[in-house]
Amino acid sequence: MILELDCGNSFVKWRVIPGASVPPIIEGIATQAADIIRDLLARDIGKITRCRLVSVRSDAETRAIMDVLSESLKVDIAKVHPAERTAGVVNGYRDQHRLGMDRWLAIIAAYDMCGGACLVIDLGTAITVDLVDRKGAHLGGYIAPGVALLRGQLLAHTRRIHYGAEETALALSDVSPGRSTAEGVERGCLIMMRSYISSQIASAEIHLGNDFVTYVTGGDASLAADFPGVRCVPDLVFRGLAIACP
Questions:
Q1: Catalytically annotated residue among 6, 44, 102, 130
Q2: Which of 67, 102, 154, 202 has the fewest other C-beta atoms within 10 Å?
Q3: How far apart are CA 159 and CA 228, in angstroms?
Q4: Same structural domain for residues 67 and 104?
Q5: Which CATH number do you get for residue 55?
Q6: pLDDT of residue 202
Q7: What angle do helix axes 101-114 and 236-244 make, rounded to 10 degrees?
Q8: 6 an active-site residue?
């Protein structure tokens, strides 16, 4: 059994797969490594023989997670590192070590899937957009705040905006003009995010031509899954992890 981990800014996404190109038998989202160990021990899934990990956290935070997992599971942990070239894709950053590893893995996986030009959009804490040409050259990309950050900034810096989770869910039932503060904020942030994605897809033709594939991944990927021609691949980062760290 192979344990895979994607240590993001807010959460650790993890899953266990029996082998290459096989659907996960268990997966989850945790805030700390101990939660993952608890969930694994609570299920009879067999012995974890391998573990691979990608992290955008600090070295100290990542090492702490690796130490807990290694000690508890008695297994070595392979951590993927930045590279100038992987699986036919050339890193486009001037300093390759500054490109977030989750972005790099998503890029690798997307290019591997389509074998040509692609636009990779990750809707997480931040919205990242990356362009790869048909020869595998990463052309760079863009970083913008995600929906949660947009909402959080409004709530943090506007004193009279207050509402709960129930109002949030109700507010997103449609995108007509809001008739409450919750509706105004939630729908406004959603429309801003979708407009940004739409503009990125449209402008990608300038750099990639009109023959490219758009992939969407990340925790908020469902918010853009209905765009024409968009391929929603929730496990894009994990797919890249398997390629970069087989």
A1: 102
A2: 202
A3: 39
A4: no
A5: 3.30.420.40
A6: 95
A7: 90
A8: no
Are the C-beta atoms of residues 86 and 101 closer than 8 Å to each other?
Answer: no
Query: Which residues have a Cβ under 8 Å from the Cβ of 175 and sit 6 or more positions away?
Result: 187, 190, 191
Q: What is the pLDDT of residues 79-136, one digit of tens each?
A: 998 899 999 999 999 999 999 999 999 999 999 999 999 999 999 889 999 999 999 9
Amino acid at residue number 48: I
Task: Judge whether 44 lies within some domain.
Answer: yes
Kindly state whether residue 163 falls inside one of the protein's structural domains. Answer: no
Residues 142 and 41 in one domain: no
**10-residue mean pLDDT series, the chain (246 residues):** 91 90 88 89 85 93 93 92 93 94 96 97 94 97 92 77 72 81 87 94 95 94 91 95 92
Asked if the structure places residue 152 within a domain, the reply is no
Are residue 114 and residue 55 in the same domain, yes or no? no
Contact, 4 vs 22, CB < 8 A?
A: no
Tokens of 246: 């087989």
What pTM does this model have?
0.89
